[in-house]
């Protein structure tokens, strides 16, 4: 127990130190709050070990899974699985925030506790979890490629969960960036949804000009996206970068990572993003926008184009003032490259019930995805479910979402991805806030990310 406590406090001291280094100077109050929060997570991890939706008889096999927030959809799937297999499922109800649940998983894995048999992970955790050998390789249970093919799971989602050519998780919830637009305004000016980012900018500028000249409409905004310094900005950055035809990081035949984009190419992308603000297409306060700020601004009818996730469709359909005025298309790009979001199921390397854990995953893949969509709105990763009439009838623009999922690409899969993300956030945010010029930011992004990659290129 003492060793485990030491490991946990070492982990937290590292986290605090890393926060200090990345932000240079933080207040004592923030530091104390961070330590208190981490201690809270330890207590939560220990206290939640016995929370379950099923009370086993002591004889049946039991597996555990950590889920956050409301269990709607999951509860009925678990009950059906238990009735069919006799295997009990203990649900640890964790915090609703993604970062907090990642911390709980990390604590459990670092102490080699068998707290969870099934791991429900954000796709961006894959590199970190797989490189630390926290997840069981899927080839312990099935031929992964044949399994994905047989279940008709989107190929790009399969690729987003591969680490150095090996597969560790099965994607069960999909997400990909979309372009929302004012269908009424594009129709008025005889325009079609833009195919490139430059076309998007020119269309926005044209509509803004015409609306101002003809109708004295000065309240309209051209294009908004998630520009705040957080992970959402990174998703947007990847989409524009790849929409221009460039790739940030690649891996060679020796499994060595390298920065693939050139300084002049990266500068072109950053010039475009900065130019949106300079040319009056995007407001300066986009640096404060997350998903909800973007959605609310668009839902008020004050925005021509907005980048967001599919969740906004349902909310726009419920908005009687916008229901007939909005449209949804695949993001611009040649080809488009919406960022992959979503969640997957994996088996913990420390599980003592690995076979039963994978049996549960397989049950969700074959029997649970439709239920998760109907009860939670979780977009399935199986292509044939988009042909299901019940799903199609309750999912406007499902054809557009399907096409976006087929184009989508994951963020860089790397064990130190959080550090890569941090570099992107710092310098892209710096460009949008006019703190850094684009040439300097391009050079620093490439230099610092290559340094990170080199630490794992053995």
- DSSP summary: helix tally: 18
Return Rg in Å.
23 Å
Strand order of the largest sheet: 8-11-7-12
- Please state the structural category: alpha+beta
Tally of structural domains: 2
Largest sheet: 4 strands, mixed
Q: Could you state the CATH homologous superfamily of the largest domain?
A: Periplasmic binding protein-like II
- Kindly state the number of beta strands: 13
What is the arithmetic mean of pLDDT? 89
Estimate what percentage of residues fall within beta strands.
5-15%
Distance between the termini: 34 Å
What is the level 1 CATH name of the largest domain? Alpha Beta
What is the overall shape? globular
User: Which regions are unreliable across 5 or more consecutive residues at pLDDT < 50?
Assistant: 1-37, 39-57
**Helicity level:** 40-55%
Q: Can you characterise this structure?
A:
The chain has helices at residues 2-23, 28-47, 74-85, 98-110, 126-131, 144-150, 155-160, 183-188, 197-215, 231-243, 263-278, 291-299, 311-317, 354-376, 389-393, 398-407, 417-432, 438-454, and strands at 62-68, 88-94, 118-122, 162-163, 166-167, 170-176, 178-182, 221-224, 249-251, 257-259, 303-308, 326-329, 340-347. It has 458 residues and is of the alpha+beta class. Strand 1, helix 3 (74-85) and strand 2 form a beta-alpha-beta unit. The protein is globular, with a radius of gyration of 23 Å.
């Amino acid at each position: 127990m003492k060793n485990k406590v030491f490991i946990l406090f070492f982990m937290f001291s590292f986290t605090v130190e890393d926060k200090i280094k990345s932000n240079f100077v933080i207040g004592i109050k923030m530091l104390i709050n961070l330590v208190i929060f981490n201690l809270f997570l330890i207590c939560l991890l220990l206290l939640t070990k016995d929370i379950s939706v099923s009370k086993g008889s002591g004889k049946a096999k039991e597996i555990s899974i950590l889920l956050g927030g409301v269990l709607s959809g999951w509860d009925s799937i678990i009950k059906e699985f238990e009735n069919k297999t006799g295997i009990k499922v203990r649900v640890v109800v964790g915090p609703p925030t993604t970062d907090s649940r990642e911390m709980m998983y990390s604590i459990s894995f670092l102490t080699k506790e068998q707290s969870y048999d099934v791991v429900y992970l954000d796709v961006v955790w894959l590199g970190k979890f797989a490189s630390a050998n926290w997840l069981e390789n899927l080839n312990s249970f099935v031929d992964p490629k044949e399994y994905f093919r047989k279940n008709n799971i989107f190929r790009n989602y399969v690729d987003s969960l591969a680490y150095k050519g090996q597969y560790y998780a099965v994607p069960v919830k999909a997400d990909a960036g979309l372009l929302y637009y004012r269908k009424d305004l594009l129709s008025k000016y005889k325009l079609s949804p833009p195919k490139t980012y430059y076309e998007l900018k020119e269309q926005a500028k044209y509509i803004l000009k015409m609306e101002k000249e003809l109708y004295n409409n000065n309240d309209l905004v051209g294009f908004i996206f998630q520009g705040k310094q957080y992970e959402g900005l990174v998703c947007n950055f990847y989409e524009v970068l790849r929409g221009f035809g460039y790739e940030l990081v690649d891996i060679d035949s020796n499994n060595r990572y390298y920065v693939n984009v050139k300084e002049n190419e990266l500068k072109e992308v950053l010039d475009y993003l900065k130019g949106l603000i300079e040319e009056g297409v995007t407001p300066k306060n986009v640096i404060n926008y997350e998903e909800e700020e973007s959605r609310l601004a668009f839902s008020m009818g004050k925005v021509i184009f907005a980048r967001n996730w599919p969740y906004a469709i349902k909310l726009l359909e419920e908005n009687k003032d916008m229901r007939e005025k909005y449209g949804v298309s695949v993001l611009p790009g040649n080809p488009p490259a919406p960022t992959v979001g979503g969640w997957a199921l994996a088996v913990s390397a420390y599980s003592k019930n690995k076979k039963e854990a994978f049996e549960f995953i397989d049950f969700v893949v074959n029997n649970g995805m439709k239920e998760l969509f109907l009860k939670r709105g979780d977009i399935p990763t199986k292509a044939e479910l988009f042909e299901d009439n019940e799903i199609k009838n309750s999912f406007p623009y499902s054809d557009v979402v399907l096409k976006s999922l087929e184009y989508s690409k994951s963020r860089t899969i790397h064990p130190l991805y959080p550090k890569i993300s941090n570099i992107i956030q710092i310098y892209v945010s710096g460009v949008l806030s006019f703190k850094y010029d684009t040439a300097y930011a391009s050079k620093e992004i490439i230099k610092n990310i290559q340094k990170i990659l080199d630490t794992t290129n053995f």
